[in-house]
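hey m, so remember when u said the tokens were messed up on ur end? i reran from scratch. heres the input so u can diff it against urs
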Amino acid sequence: MRILVIEDDEEAAAYLARNLRGAGHSVDHALDGDAGLKMASAGNYDAYVIDRMLPKLDGVSLLARRREENDETPALFLSALGEVDDRVAGLKAGGDDYLVKPYAFPELLARVEALGRRRGPANVTTRFGVGDLELDIISRTVRRGGKKIDLQPREFRLLEYLMRHAEQVVTRTMLLENVWEYHFDPQTNVIDVHISRLRSKIDKEFDKPLLQTIRGAGYTISDAD
């Protein structure tokens, strides 16, 4: 499943994302309601995990806006607010489930996966393509123009994240949080090194470069001229 976690507590979000990925799921993370709303609007997710108390835009209002746009993605609310009225407010806003903090991760995982099954498997994407570049999550293979490209695990994860956000600008912060699971800037050139290695493998022997650096903004993978 592809899951969007919207949680402003960086430590809690890192714990949740790490364990969801360990269970075989793909996870994106937003730190506030505004960012979460933008990512939910632009992405194609199988489930949302939303903290109720978020800066800039609270979780209930965020989900209510998505429901107004006919977004039917299943949503699980996380909250320290456990009174009946709080749970009812979350469910009335369009939430499918509600879990009170602190929670046990196995229970959260079971609830999220149940939401995914309820929606059905049709929305699960395991193959991505940009131009003649193809990535298959199940077989862990990458091909361009039919030629197999061997990637190291981190390179594969980096490419997967970029291809999930094809035609969008991906910032260094997004890569640090979602590919390296850093919630701080390590002040190293780790991203530059991996981008360079990835570019040499997917672009160097081909006529049209797909991986682009957007100066001052980040990176994008695109087939646009």
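this time it looks ok to me. The helical segments are 10-22, 33-42, 59-68, 84-92, 105-119, 153-164, 172-178, 190-202. if urs says something different then somethings off w ur setup not the seq
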